[in-house]
């Protein structure tokens, strides 16, 4: 077993852990994605060809899908920004009652699958939705916000803006008040102060959030499907593969393009941020002072925030109404209410709820185990190529769910599981693996951040007092990282629970379906709409409850750690 | 890394445990179906109750996705049963040798409905329920928009319905494919496509999923939808303010069930098919959530009053559906529909609108403008593939073969691209001409 | 209590890549000695300490603790207690749990652990604080807990890494005295790393002054102060005036130092070398007067450039023949002070003058 790290800078156990993780990533990320890329460039009998790409660009539909995807992703980022920036600025910068509630509510959209939101949004903002019925009545004209690409942009922006919000809130909270005060001292104030000092300093946070929104929207399959928009890349990839077959090369070409664009977005954001990782709170500094608003300003701010929150929460309100609605058709509100849908779901599909908990729980568990291990290897050892591991794990962020699923279906085609003889491609285990691989970057970031905050002397003190490296990890490192690990677990779990792109392609049968797929299934029949909504509400509740509990746990811990780090 | 190795061991144990649970259920029957959960859940429950220890696994796939799935499953690991509406999908499967013969049908089921055989004469698949295609509308929507109730497909080409109808794409929905085929067979290729194009021009949306249409009508997004009967009937039974009507150009076609070749649980599969065709199995179709037409005539005796009965003459099917013809051009029709309608719907709808507006303005006057308008109509409502071309066997074969190498992919995508761009050009030109015509009315 | 042990470093060298951190370090720390490693940051003092603790590894050389070579022994088996600069108290554990940690790792029986924890906390005067969290303690209290945690395992050697640097000035002096008292009481061999010469001089029995990975001088505090081995030590330990010149031996066994500032002056004790040299003079060994008197062998004229009032004394910067000399003059109530620009006489005591060979 391990002795000191010696001149090599790592132990055999650490090397073994690194190899194991590398093997996992190779089998379930590199090879499948490599397969997708290979097929996109391969001749039927082998050999390299660009013919498939030529075919792709010959089809004007594909060109159109390509531009539409770019347009939708770009516009979604723009609208998400419009929603998030004022929310973040007002709540961090001014003394507003209920700032925490506002920020929490602002994160709520993330815990609902976006396509479920789309269904609810149809009922509220659609052609004959509540809002348009009222507008028709009053003005004789409606707002076509849910038509075509507009609808996709609207739903995606509302669903993903929390990424921008969360990153901005963190970035703004970490700004040293001296930064702002010195600008004020030199004569800047009001909007100029915001534009010239506050926003540029918060820029890294913003760019990180915005690029995430871009990638996510680019990747989302469920929302365009539910809104009947097919001329985008993700739906086209899905349609080609599912209706023409796993051998259709165009599907692979689309996949390669989607990977390329995700990589490009992430690379561009990394480039934009290079050398701009402004030190946050400086030693002895304090975060931005919260200014008081004059009553009139406060009223205006509140009114605005309430409007935004209503908009943001409309999918939730809609889905809640739908889940209790007896019949809701061409009317502002449902005709009558019932709890029947919940009874149906609880009687019918407890298995789906359990499946979600099982799959996402397992996936999140793997993620934090791998995340912790990778973080440790990177920050605490001098293992050669350890940064490659980080890069590989993070690369999953750039792989759209549809693409990963296509890669799995193709790579593991016909592969049988040991013992059961079941096909791997129709086994739920593949779904867990897909979730684990796709959510690993979140868990990894979280674990890395937690370990980075941990001064190495805390471990050394333990070793110095007689704890072996393993015991120091077990008794000191992991317990102290618990907050970060838990946050990583929750993020992984939450985002896996609402994901549909890979789910819809990898779910083999109803009994193995998680809730997100179950909601989608229910929504396919007249009688199932209410039940699907009820399942959606239950999904939101489960995820929200988990998030809330972990937050409560984290808050107590964070206080301890904060005080500790401030003393340093 | 003691901790993570422990974690891995735990995870491994959890995985094995869960696997053990799954396999402890005993015999499994795997069904690939395009039917909604409402229907499958009822059958699953009933069948599992009758056969303790049996586990029914439902795999929901769209019809064409289901066909692809069955085709691509490895030979030793095929699902057991394929259960879907479109007979042509079964024809495709049978032709590829993916279905197994089975001779356990219910003798009480008549051989034919109209002139259409309910069961495959070779025994590859059986009619399990009957389906007609028709119009479904939201009564509140029609009232609010002051629209008359439609009775025939042809009604939907009327200007008054512009922007109120909806249909799904045949490439995504077997039932829509049948609807489109029914119209094409009922009206003939050219006229059928022309009608289809005009209807599509009046549609507010071409939905991605077949259920997108009834869903949109149910919640009032769209006024009228072209749907398979049970979508309308079950929605009505679920309390939605909707009505359903069979137009005269409809075909009563069986929804089918078939045993997949080399099925893992072939015996259980046969048992399931027999169950769905039995008296008990047929009666399940009358469940309001399902609302489908049984193939067993005796079952109608137990149906609620007003339940449509194809054996009793409440539905008059004018079209004798030719499933062989349909099967031959299955992918072609889908591809044409997608590239000329689904993906060019914006331009088509704009052209329709312009034509409607112009013809309202002209009201039959101004012969020069009328000529322009006629040209616009021809441009907008003529199919991109002529009737002669469809008779070309080599042309059809190109689309039937699913194995595609690079050259073939290029050939097909080239064709599709050609249709797409021709359609776009035509629609834009038609809109231009119609606008010109309208301008002349002043 | 453990037997007192000796710590020896023999020809230790260490580096990362081409970057040399320690160079030929030789050191003998006597059993029970309070030994300080003094040097600026980057001098290698902390590296040497971590090497003794087992966190760093020497490229060559031997490290002996109690006569045994510990080079291959991992940190957890060395029984060398270390108090970290930031204390490294574990925030998820109470004070008691922190202190008990090392004892638990040694698999001691529960009641023994309880006794030893109690004793350790009593030793640092925190008997009532066992159930608190580190975050609920002041800086000085945290320091004591860190100390208690380390001495609870009764280490052979106690290592202190800048233990006082995070405390405010007043507390630092108090803790310094407590540390010293505790070490006396336990008699444990202690190595103390600091960059603060006052801290080192007031606490340590002996000091090793380090710079650029090399030990410059080892000696008692007074030894270092009075007889700095080189310019670096002279400068680092206390303030000093350094004046360049030449030294040559005189016939009487003394020497002559010839410099532009002082001219030729006779030195009673020859330094043992000739040639380029610097004269080192502590600021308080120089005197100022309106006129020369007999208290010093010779005087030079100067002009006051600057004056700083430091309480116990007044520090003058004086221009003497183009060189700036620092002179500290004790301050008493009513004592006259000189103003900038005022001419003065600077008196030099050659007995206080040390000659350093110019490197």
Question: What's the count of strands of chain A?
Answer: 0
Main β-sheet, spatial strand arrangement of chain C: 6-7-8-3-9-10
The CATH H-level homologous superfamily of the largest domain in chain C: P-loop containing nucleotide triphosphate hydrolases
* CATH architecture grouping of the largest domain in chain C: 3-Layer(aba) Sandwich
Distance between the termini of chain A: 34 Å
Let me know the average pLDDT of chain A. 82
Order of helices and strands of chain A: HHHHHHHHHHHHHHHHHHHHHHH
CATH topology of the domain at 67-278 and 292-337 in chain A: MetI-like fold
So what's the CATH class of the domain at 67-278 and 292-337 in chain A?
Answer: Mainly Alpha
Please identify the structural class of chain C as seen in this structure.
Answer: alpha+beta
Low-confidence stretches of chain C: none
**Between the first and last Cα atoms of chain C, what is the distance in angstroms?**
46 Å
The top level CATH class name of the largest domain in chain C: Alpha Beta
Shape of chain C: elongated
Net shape of chain A = globular
User: Ranges of chain A with pLDDT <50 over ≥5 residues?
Assistant: 1-7, 279-285, 562-568
Considering the chains and any ligands shown, give keywords for the structure:
heterotrimer, A: mainly alpha, MetI-like fold, 23 helices, 0% strand, B: D-Maltodextrin-Binding Protein, domain 2, D-Maltodextrin-Binding Protein, domain 2, 2 domains, 5-stranded mixed β-sheet
Would you mind describing this structure in some detail?
The complex is a heterotrimer of chains A (568), B (442) and C (359). The model of chain A is unreliable at 1-7, 279-285 and 562-568 (pLDDT under 50). Chain A has a domain at 67-278 and 292-337: MetI-like fold (Orthogonal Bundle), CATH 1.10.3720. By secondary structure, chain A is an all-alpha fold. Chain A has 23 helices and no strands. In chain B, 50% of the residues lie in helices and 14% in strands. Chain B has 18 helices and 14 strands. Chain B has helices spanning 2-23, 37-50, 63-72, 87-95, 139-144, 174-187, 189-202, 212-218, 229-237, 266-277, 279-283, 323-328, 330-342, 345-362, 367-381, 387-391, 393-400, 406-440; strands at residues 28-33, 55-60, 81-84, 99-100, 112-113, 116-117, 125-131, 133-138, 165-168, 203-207, 224-228, 242-245, 253-260, 293-294. The longest helix of chain B has 35 residues, at 406-440. The radius of gyration of chain B is 24 Å and the shape is globular. Chain C has helices spanning 45-53, 95-105, 110-123, 139-152, 169-186, 197-203, 221-226, 231-236, and strands at residues 7-16, 19-29, 34-38, 60-65, 68-69, 80-83, 157-161, 189-194, 206-211, 214-219, 241-249, 255-259, 263-267, 275-281, 287-289, 298-309, 313-320, 323-330, 343-348, 354-357. At the A-B interface, helix 1, helix 2, helix 3, helix 11 and helix 15 of A face helix 1, helix 2, strand 2, helix 3 and helix 5 of B.
């Amino acid at each position: 077993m391990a002795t000191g790290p010696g001149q090599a800078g790592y132990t055999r156990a650490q090397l073994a852990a690194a190899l194991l993780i590398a093997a996992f990533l190779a089998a379930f990320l590199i090879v499948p994605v490599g397969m997708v890329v290979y097929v996109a460039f391969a001749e039927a009998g082998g050999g390299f060809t660009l013919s498939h790409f030529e075919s792709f660009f010959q089809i004007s539909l594909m060109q159109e899908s390509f531009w539409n995807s770019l347009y939708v992703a770009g516009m979604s980022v723009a609208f998400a920004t419009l929603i998030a920036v004022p929310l973040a600025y007002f709540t961090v910068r001014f003394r507003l009652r209920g700032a925490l509630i506002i920020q929490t509510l602002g994160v709520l959209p993330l815990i609902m699958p976006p396509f479920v939101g789309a269904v609810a949004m149809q009922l509220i903002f659609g052609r004959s939705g509540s809002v348009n019925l009222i507008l028709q009545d009053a003005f004789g004209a409606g707002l076509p916000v849910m038509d075509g690409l507009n609808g996709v942009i609207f739903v995606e922006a509302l669903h993903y803006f929390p990424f921008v919000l969360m990153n901005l809130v963190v970035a703004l909270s970490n700004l040293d008040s001296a930064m702002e005060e010195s600008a004020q001292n030199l004569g800047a104030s009001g909007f100029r102060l915001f534009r010239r000092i506050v926003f540029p300093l918060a820029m890294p946070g913003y760019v990180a959030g915005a690029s995430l929104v871009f990638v996510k929207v680019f990747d989302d399959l469920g929302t365009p499907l539910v809104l009947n928009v097919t001329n985008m890349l993700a739906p086209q990839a899905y349609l080609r593969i599912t209706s023409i077959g796993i051998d259709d090369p165009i599907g692979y070409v689309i996949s390669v393009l989607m990977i390329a664009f995700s990589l490009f977005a992430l690379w561009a954001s990394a480039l934009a941020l290079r050398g701009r990782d402004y030190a946050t709170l400086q030693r002895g500094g304090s975060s931005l002072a919260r200014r008081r608003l004059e009553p009139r300003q406060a009223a205006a701010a509140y009114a605005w925030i309430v409007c935004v929150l209503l908009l943001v929460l409309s999918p939730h309100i809609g889905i809640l109404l739908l889940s209790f609605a007896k019949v809701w058709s061409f009317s502002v509100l449902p005709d009558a209410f019932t709890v029947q849908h919940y009874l149906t779901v609880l009687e019918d599909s407890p298995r789906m709820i359990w499946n979600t908990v099982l799959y996402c729980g397992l996936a999140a568990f793997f993620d934090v185990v791998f995340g912790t291990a990778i973080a440790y290897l990177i920050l605490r050892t001098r293992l050669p190529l350890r940064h490659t591991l980080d890069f590989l794990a993070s690369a999953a962020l750039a792989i759209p769910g549809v693409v990963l699923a296509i890669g799995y279906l193709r790579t593991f085609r016909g592969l049988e599981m040991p013992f059961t003889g079941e096909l791997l491609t129709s086994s739920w285990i593949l779904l867990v693996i897909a979730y684990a691989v796709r959510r690993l970057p979140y868990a990894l970031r979280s674990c890395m951040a937690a370990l980075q905050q941990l001064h190495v002397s805390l471990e050394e003190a333990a070793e110095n007092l007689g704890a072996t490296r393993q015991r120091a990890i077990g008794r000191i490192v992991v317990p102290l990282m618990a907050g970060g690990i838990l946050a990583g677990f929750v993020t992984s779990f939450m985002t896996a629970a609402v994901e549909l792109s890979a789910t819809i392609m990898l779910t083999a049968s109803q009994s193995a379906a998680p809730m997100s797929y179950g909601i989608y299934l229910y929504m396919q029949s007249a009688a199932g709409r209410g039940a699907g909504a009820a399942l959606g509400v239950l999904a939101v509740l489960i995820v929200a409850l988990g998030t809330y509990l972990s937050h409560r746990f984290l808050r107590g811990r964070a206080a301890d750690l904060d005080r500790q780090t401030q003393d340093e | 890394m003691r901790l993570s190795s422990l974690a891995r061991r735990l995870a491994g144990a959890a995985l094995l445990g869960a696997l053990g649970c799954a396999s402890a259920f005993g015999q499994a029957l795997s069904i690939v179906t395009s039917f909604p959960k409402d229907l499958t859940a009822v059958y699953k429950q009933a069948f599992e109750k009758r056969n303790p220890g049996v586990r029914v696994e439902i795999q929901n796939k769209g019809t064409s996705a289901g066909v692809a799935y069955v085709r691509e499953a490895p030979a030793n690991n095929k699902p057991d049963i394929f259960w879907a509406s479109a007979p042509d999908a079964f024809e495709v499967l049978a032709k590829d040798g993916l279905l197994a013969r089975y001779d356990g049908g219910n003798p009480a089921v008549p051989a034919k409905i109209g002139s259409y055989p309910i069961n495959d004469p070779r025994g590859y698949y059986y009619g399990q329920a009957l389906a007609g295609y028709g119009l479904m509308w939201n009564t509140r929507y029609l009232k609010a928009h002051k629209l008359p109730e439609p009775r025939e497909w042809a009604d939907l080409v009327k200007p008054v319905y512009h922007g109120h109808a909806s249909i799904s794409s045949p490439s995504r929905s077997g039932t829509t494919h049948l609807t489109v085929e029914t119209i094409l067979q009922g009206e003939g290729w050219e006229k059928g496509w022309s009608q289809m194009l005009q209807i599509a021009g009046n549609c507010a949306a071409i939905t991605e999923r077949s259920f997108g249409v009834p869903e949109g009508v149910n919640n009032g997004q769209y006024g009228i939808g072209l749907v398979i009967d049970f979508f309308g009937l079950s929605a009505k039974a679920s309390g939605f303010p909707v009505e359903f009507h069979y137009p005269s150009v409809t075909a009563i076609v069986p929804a089918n069930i078939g045993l997949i070749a080399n099925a893992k649980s072939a015996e259980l599969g046969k048992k399931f098919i027999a169950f769905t065709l039995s008296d008990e199995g047929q009666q399940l179709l009358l469940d309001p959530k399902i609302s489908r037409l049984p193939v067993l005539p005796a079952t109608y005796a137990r149906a609620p009053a007003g339940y449509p009965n194809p054996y009793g003459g409440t539905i008059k099917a004018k079209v004798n559906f030719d499933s062989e013809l349909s099967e031959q051009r299955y992918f072609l029709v889908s591809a044409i529909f997608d590239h000329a309608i689904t993906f060019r719907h914006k331009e088509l709808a704009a052209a329709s609108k312009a034509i409607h507006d112009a013809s309202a303005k002209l009201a039959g006057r101004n012969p020069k403008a009328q000529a322009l308008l006629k040209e616009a109509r021809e441009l907008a409502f003529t199919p991109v593939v002529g009737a002669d071309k469809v008779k070309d066997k080599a042309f059809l074969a190109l689309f039937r073969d699913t194995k595609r190498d690079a050259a073939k992919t290029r050939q097909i995508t080239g064709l599709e691209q050609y249709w797409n761009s021709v359609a776009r050009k035509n629609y834009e030109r038609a809109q231009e001409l119609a606008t010109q015509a309208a301008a002349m009315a002043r | 209590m453990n037997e007192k042990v000796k710590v020896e470093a023999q020809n230790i060298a260490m580096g990362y890549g081409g970057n040399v951190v320690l160079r030929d370090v030789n050191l003998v720390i006597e059993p029970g000695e309070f030994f300080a490693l003094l040097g600026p940051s980057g001098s290698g003092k902390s590296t040497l300490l971590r090497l003794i603790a087992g966190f760093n590894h020497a490229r060559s050389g031997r490290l002996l603790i109690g006569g045994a070579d510990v080079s291959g022994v991992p940190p957890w088996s060395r029984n060398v207690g270390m108090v970290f600069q930031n204390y490294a108290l574990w925030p998820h554990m109470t004070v008691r749990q922190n202190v008990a940690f090392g004892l638990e790792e040694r698999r001691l029986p529960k009641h023994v652990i309880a006794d030893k924890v109690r004793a350790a906390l009593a030793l640092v005067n925190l008997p009532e604080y066992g159930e608190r969290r580190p975050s609920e303690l002041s800086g000085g209290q945290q320091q004591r807990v860190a100390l208690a945690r380390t001495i609870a395992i009764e280490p052979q050697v106690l290592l202190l890494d800048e233990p006082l640097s995070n405390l405010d000035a007043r507390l630092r002096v108090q803790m310094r005295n407590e540390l010293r008292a505790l070490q006396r009481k336990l008699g444990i061999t202690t190595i103390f790393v600091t960059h603060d010469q006052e801290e080192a001089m007031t606490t340590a029995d002996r000091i090793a002054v380090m710079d650029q990975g090399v030990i410059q001088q080892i000696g008692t505090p007074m030894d270092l102060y009075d007889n700095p081995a080189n310019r670096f030590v002279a400068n680092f330990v206390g303030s000093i005036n350094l004046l360049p010149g030449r030294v040559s031996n005189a016939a009487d066994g003394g020497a002559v130092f010839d410099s532009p500032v002082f001219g030729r002056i006779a030195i009673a004790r020859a330094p043992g070398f000739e040639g380029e040299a610097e004269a080192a003079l502590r600021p308080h060994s120089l005197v100022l007067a309106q006129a020369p008197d007999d208290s010093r062998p010779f005087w030079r004229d100067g002009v006051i450039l600057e004056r700083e009032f430091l309480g116990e004394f007044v520090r003058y910067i004086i221009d003497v023949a183009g060189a700036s000399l620092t002179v500290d003059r004790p301050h008493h109530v009513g004592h006259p002070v000189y103003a900038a620009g005022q001419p003065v006489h600077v008196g030099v005591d050659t007995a206080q003058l040390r000659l350093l060979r110019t490197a």
